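REQUEST
  id: r-88c1
  op: predict_structure
  target: DoxX family protein
  payload:
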Amino acid sequence: MNNKIIFWIVKLVVVVILVQTLFFKFTGAEESIYIFTKLGIEPFGRIGSGIAELLASILILIPRTTLLGAIVALGTMLGAIASHLFVLGIEVQNDGGTLFFLALITAVCSCYLIFHERNKIADLLKLKI
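RESPONSE
  id: r-88c1
  status: 200
  body:
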């Protein structure tokens, strides 16, 4: 399979997972409220992480900003993974570990995107804000 096709499949995996979870965060689904309450950051953590994931999704889809989006996605997923490992547990409300494994998949795919776009890191560091 062509590397470009694999790259786009990985991009879409990350974006689909992030966008799918946004619905639950932004609509205040019971499971999302439970998670962020247990973490002690409801509702601001839920909404804030949702905004970060939405931003990451948009950035990943734009070829010029894929690297930045993947970095944001990886950061949010590392936070999610740490939350599962140290506070929530692998399984949350009898989900069989689904949310934890989705976070792992997203983190691994984000690492792939960062590695694929590594030649753009120097340009990213030169950004003038």
